[in-house]
Amino acid sequence: MIRKRVSKIGSYAISSSQQQQQEACITCTTFNILAPIYKRINHNNCRESDYKAYWLARNHSILDSLLRERSSIICLQEFWVGNEELVNLYEKRLTAAGYLNFKLGRTNNRGDGLLIAVRKDYFRIVNYRELLFNDFGDRVAQLLHVELLAPYSQCRNNDIHREILIVNTHLLFPHDSTLCIVRLRQVYKILQYVESYQKENKLNPLPILLCGDWNGSKRGHIFKFLRSQGFVSSYDTAHRYTDSDAHKWVSHRNHRGNICGVDFIWLLNPNRYRKLLKTSWSEAVFGMFKYLLRRASLREEDAFAFLKADNDGDYVTYNDFCEALRQLNLTGHRHGLNDQETNELWLQADVDGNGILDYREFQQQIWNPLSSSERRDEYNGIKDDDDDDVKNAVPAQQTIGFSVKNAVLFPQEVEKGRWPEHYSLSDHARLTVVFSPIRMPCSDSIT
User: Fold this and answer.
1) From CA 262, how far away is CA 256, in angstroms rounded?
2) Residue 247's domain spans which residues?
3) Nearest Cα to 94, choosing from 57, 69, 130?
4) Is residue 447 situated within a structural domain?
5) pLDDT digit string (tens) for 271-301?
6) Could you give the CA distance from residue 327 to residue 310 in angstroms, rounded to a whole number?
7) Distance (Å, rounded) from C-alpha 396 to C-alpha 206?
8) Phi and psi for 273 in degrees, rounded to 5?
9) Whose CA, among 158, 226, 341, 377, lies 20 to 30 Å from 285?
């Protein structure tokens, strides 16, 4: 049974009238806590890890703030897994507060990693998996499969699935433009892994929470990639922000002194439409491709001419396509697209499969892409009519999903797009989101 209490989300107290609504909710916090091995403490480039009193006091303060908030789910990044004393500190205090903890270090002994903690009075652990990218940056991700234990009125029926997938990760920082593909590939690997996990375990679609430091903003290709898969940014949903509102909040002041919004809790509900993952990947890379063409001040006709190069015909060959990718720095280096990825992009672009890319395909696949269904309907001559059998079908099973009730960043100033100079817990803000379980239909399996 969930205890009744007066909660705090960030620094906002919840009133007694709000408390009744909160009782049937779960909360999720994501926080990059800045590993002491990376935190600089003076102009001589000294690191906090050399001064135990400093890092110990700061991490006690971080834990104090987390335990005051008592979120149902806590996802931390830059957790100093290489220091046994700090690891024991977190395990001792979180365990005493009723959490089950899972930690994962980055590969090649980089020193920091990830931690997921979930309240054992809220969840039963079904499974835990670790994803090692084994790529540049030694990044990793955690997948936690849990069942909701709390007796929510929406979920009391035994036929209602109450399981959730939680992912925690920390993507590579975009040190230069050649790493854009690496970062996009990391997200692609996460989604592939989640998809294969669901198929392997014959799971019906479940709610998925993707938490972490994505090292990219709402203006980036990763944001669009996740959106194309049906995910929504929970903070933006709570505040009804659109894509043009990227400047209204920040969550990080990076080592270059820039402030930006990079910390997200993404939500995918089981009834959301999802494109084929490979299609979303191709569209994301083509989006990057178009961005680079436009950055070179190429209009649509000029961009097509650039692709076909010296080809006399009004079409692009595979060799022309590969050369264009190389000139745009998307291939030809260790971080770029490999041969298989390049070939898969080509197959996605060459819709009619005749071995060349004509102007129409260039327009619809790269420059002004249609949705997957619109594109195939147009090429196949299929009229886009409603299928009454599908529309009127009664779903065989139901599951829980989530609505976003509230989301706050701490410290409060970052919600106004400002970074407070007095803030010292981390170089990231803490994001906490309140989710309310709702009943919704789901299909029988992952397709």
Assistant:
1) 14
2) 25-275+403-442
3) 69
4) no
5) 876 788 888 888 888 888 888 888 888 888 8
6) 14
7) 15
8) -65, 135
9) 377
